[in-house]
Every structure is written in structure tokens, then in C-alpha cells.
């Protein structure tokens, strides 16, 4: 392989040092800043988790309050964003619009941003966490042909997003505490996952000195793919196609057939060779949330059967393929009335907290270099142009 170590897909290459998130893929352990994901899911809130990811430690009550107030204060976006979103076709994919509108934020804030100033870097990170839900609401409303709506800054982070998204023309939206809690929990589970493809993309772009808005816009496009965050959308489409528990067996057969081009979406993970701890939390909450909301979804039966069938199948056992975070998340999003094409936007909303934390960490890393992998050249030797 010549002069360089060949490592396609970076399966054995650490690209940075990081103190944010720890994964033990063999044991199925996930820690944010040292705290187990199961404990955060049970006891914390997304805003507290976001603060902790960004700042390194959990906030005290006053810090949390101040952070919530800052997120509310920064939630608004310029009218130019509405013009941009309005210029997209109504059926354009929401992830395309999200990437474009985050890039547009750089047009407004980048020129005045001094990357050498710690407070300005922090502010940019907080702005992104505050504005991505607002952008997501505007994108949803555009897709549905609804008029743009402003965020209600008197509400908490998740309630603000829900109200802005679903409020009717006469200003009505009844907040359901079960919906708020479920969404908050999903955002916690999505908040960070160390050097996944989108976070690595944010860091790669950030390593060039590009501004944080540009870096996060790139992260959004990396998240879009079905092998990464786009899997939550792909899972729901797959479950709909399978349609009934009777067809589960043939779906498993097809997923094992390498010539079919079909993989079991929501299964397998580069790092976890055991249960994805996020999938355990989501699996348990799915029934509970559907019960609380009085929703019966036949797709839940299909998913449960599919999970059972795969977990007992030699092919999946031998390859240590377990359900990942995306396997059940779509069923919950659907129960929360979030349309399928918005699922990956919901993932991006939670993951923004992780992306900006990695960007911040990278900016003060004394060992940080521009990301510049090498290659193993397989082309022609030198030849004459005649
Ligand atoms: N269905 C069927 N076979 C699979 C699957 C699957 N979902 N995932 C992996 N395999 C097989 C694969 O064919 C290979 O078999 P063999 O050793 O015989 O060639 C083996 O398992 C190892 O797979 P790989 O593709 O080399 O593993 P990877 O680490 O490169 O890929 C993955 C990880 C997540 C991209 C992959 O498991 C996959 O495509 N899963 C489905 C998509 C998905 O659910 N993605 C969400 C990931 S979690 C959330 C996130 O990161 O956003």
C-alpha cells in the first residue's frame, strides 16, 4: 500500500483527541462527559445536556436558567431566511433546505465573527443550538404550505419548537407534556456520538478555519445519507414496505442476500458490536409513548417481529448486527405527527449540540492540524501526451 497506512472508512484511525463522548462498542456503553446515557435519559433535559456538551460540566440552576434565556433570546432568524426557504420547491427535501439555511446564517454572522475570541466562538455555538429548531419549524411549515411563524420565546426549548411548528393560523397549539418529554428525550439521545461521519465532517471543515455555520451546514449534508442519520427515514419506509409481520421473514432473507442491494435499515453499527444503548432506551420508550398518546401503529408490531427475527438469525448474530438508534425513533416521530421526510432534520436538531461542541473543542486543541488524509494511488504511471 505504499507509503501510507490504507484505512478505508477510517476504521482504525483516531482523527483527534476528544473529552466529550466515550463509546465502548463491545459493551454497549455511551457516556456524555462521563455520564451514562441511560442516566441522562432518565434524569436530565436536552438543554442541560447541550450546556454540558458545550461547557464540559453540568450547569447549576442559575447557569441553566441563563442558558435557557440565551437560547430563547437567540431563537429568532432574519426575514431573509424566510425568503430563502420560500424559494425552495415545497417538496424539496428538508435536509437540503436545512443545509442551505444554516449556510445562510454564516452570511449574516461570519464577517463579524472573530474566531480568536473565546466568547464569540461560544456565542456562535449557542446561536446554532438556538436557531436550528427555528429553521426546522420554518422548513416544516414551508413544506406544508403554512405561513412562516415566529418562535415563542416565553416557552422552553422543546415546547417553543413544537408550538412554532404546529401552531394553527388562529394561534392555537395545545402543548402535550408527553410529546414534549418524548421529543426532549430523543434530542438527548441524538445529541452526540463522538467521531461519526457528520461530526468528523464538521471537524474536517472546521480544521480549514471555515466558520462554524459553514462547518455545521456540511455536517447536515453528511448526516443526510441513509447509512448515517438518513437511516431513520429509511427505516420507516422499509417498515411500510414490509407492511405486515407476515412479511418479516422474507425481508430478513432479502437483507442477507448480498445481491439484493437491501440492508436491514436501523441495524448494524461501525462501533457497536452489541446493543446500541440508545436503541435500548428508545425501544423501551416507544410502547410507553404510543400508549400515552393513544396511538396504535401496526408498524410497531412489524418492527418488534423484525428485531426478534434478526436477533435470532445466524447471519446477524455472526456479524454482531444489533438494532441501532434509528430502528425505533421513526415510529416515535410518526406518533408525534412529524412527517417522515423531517425525521433526519430532527436528528440534526439534537446533533447540533454535539457538532458545535466538537467545533469548539477543536478550536482550542493545540495539536489541531488541517484534516488532510493521504491516498494509495492506483492510476497510470507518467505517460506522454502525444
Ligand atoms: N443489513 C444486512 N447486512 C448488514 C447490515 C444490515 N443493516 N449492516 C451490515 N451488514 C453486513 C455487511 O454486509 C457486512 O457483511 P460481510 O462481512 O459478509 O461483508 C458486515 O455486516 C459488516 O458491515 P459493514 O458494512 O462492513 O459495516 P460498517 O461498519 O462499514 O457499516 C453501517 C455500518 C451502520 C453503515 C451498516 O451496518 C449499515 O449500512 N446499516 C444500515 C443503515 C443504518 O441503520 N445506519 C444507521 C447507523 S446508526 C445512526 C447513525 O450513525 O446515524
TrEMBL record:
Coiled coil: none annotated. It catalyses: oxaloacetate + acetyl-CoA + H2O = citrate + CoA + H(+). One of its GO terms (molecular function) is citrate synthase activity. The keyword Transcription regulation does not apply. GO terms for biological process: tricarboxylic acid cycle. Keywords: Transferase, Tricarboxylic acid cycle. Pathway: Carbohydrate metabolism; tricarboxylic acid cycle; isocitrate from oxaloacetate: step 1/2. GO terms for cellular component: cytoplasm. Belongs to the citrate synthase family. NCBIfam families: cit_synth_I (TIGR01798), PRK05614.1 (NF004126). This is Citrate synthase. It comes from Stenotrophomonas acidaminiphila. The lineage of its organism: Bacteria, Pseudomonadati, Pseudomonadota, Gammaproteobacteria, Lysobacterales. The gene is gltA.
Amino acid at each position: 500500500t505504499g507509503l501510507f497506512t490504507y484505512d478505508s472508512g477510517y476504521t482504525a484511525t483516531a482523527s483527534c483527541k476528544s473529552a466529550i463522548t466515550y463509546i465502548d462498542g463491545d459493551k454497549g456503553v455511551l457516556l456524555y462527559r462521563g455520564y451514562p446515557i441511560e442516566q441522562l435519559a432518565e434524569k436530565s433535559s436536552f438543554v442541560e445536556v447541550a450546556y454540558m456538551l458545550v461547557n464540559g460540566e453540568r450547569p447549576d440552576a442559575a447557569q441553566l436558567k441563563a442558558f435557557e434565556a440565551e437560547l430563547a433570546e437567540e431563537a429568532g432568524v432574519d426575514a431573509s431566511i424566510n425568503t430563502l426557504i420560500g424559494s425552495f420547491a415545497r417538496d424539496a427535501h428538508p435536509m437540503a433546505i436545512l443545509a442551505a439555511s444554516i449556510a445562510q446564517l454564516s452570511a449574516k454572522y461570519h464577517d463579524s465573527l472573530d474566531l480568536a475570541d473565546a466568547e464569540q466562538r461560544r456565542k456562535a455555538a449557542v446561536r446554532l443550538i438556538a436557531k436550528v429548531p427555528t429553521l426546522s419549524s420554518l422548513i416544516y411549515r414551508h413544506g406544508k404550505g403554512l405561513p412562516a411563524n415566529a418562535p415563542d420565546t416565553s416557552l422552553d426549548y422543546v415546547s417553543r419548537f413544537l408550538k412554532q411548528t404546529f401552531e394553527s393560523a388562529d394561534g392555537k397549539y395545545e402543548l402535550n407534556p408527553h410529546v414534549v418529554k418524548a421529543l426532549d428525550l430523543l434530542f438527548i439521545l441524538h445529541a452526540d456520538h463522538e467521531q461519526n461521519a457528520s461530526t468528523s465532517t464538521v471537524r474536517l471543515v472546521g480544521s480549514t478555519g471555515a466558520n462554524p455555520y459553514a462547518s455545521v451546514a456540511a455536517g447536515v449534508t453528511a448526516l443526510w445519507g441513509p447509512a448515517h442519520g438518513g437511516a431513520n427515514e429509511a427505516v420507516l419506509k422499509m417498515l411500510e414496505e414490509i407492511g405486515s409481520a407476515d412479511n418479516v421473514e422474507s425481508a430478513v432473507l432479502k437483507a442477507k442476500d448480498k445481491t439484493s442491494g437491501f440492508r436491514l435499515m436501523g441495524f448494524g453499527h461501525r462501533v457497536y458490536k452489541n446493543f446500541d444503548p440508545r436503541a435500548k432506551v428508545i425501544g423501551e420508550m416507544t410502547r410507553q409513548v404510543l400508549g400515552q398518546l393513544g396511538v396504535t401503529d401496526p408498524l410497531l408490531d412489524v418492527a418488534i417481529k423484525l428485531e426478534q427475527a434478526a436477533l435470532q438469525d445466524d447471519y446477524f448474530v455472526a456479524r454482531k448486527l444489533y438494532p441501532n438508534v434509528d430502528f425505533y425513533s421513526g415510529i416515535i416521530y410518526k406518533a408525534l405527527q412529524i412527517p417522515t421526510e423531517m425525521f433526519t432534520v430532527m436528528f440534526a436538531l439534537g446533533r447540533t449540540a454535539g457538532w458545535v461542541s466538537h467545533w469548539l473543542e477543536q478550536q482550542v486543541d493545540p495539536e489541531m492540524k488541517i484534516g488532510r488524509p493521504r491516498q494509495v494511488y492506483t492510476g497510470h504511471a507518467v505517460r506522454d501526451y502525444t
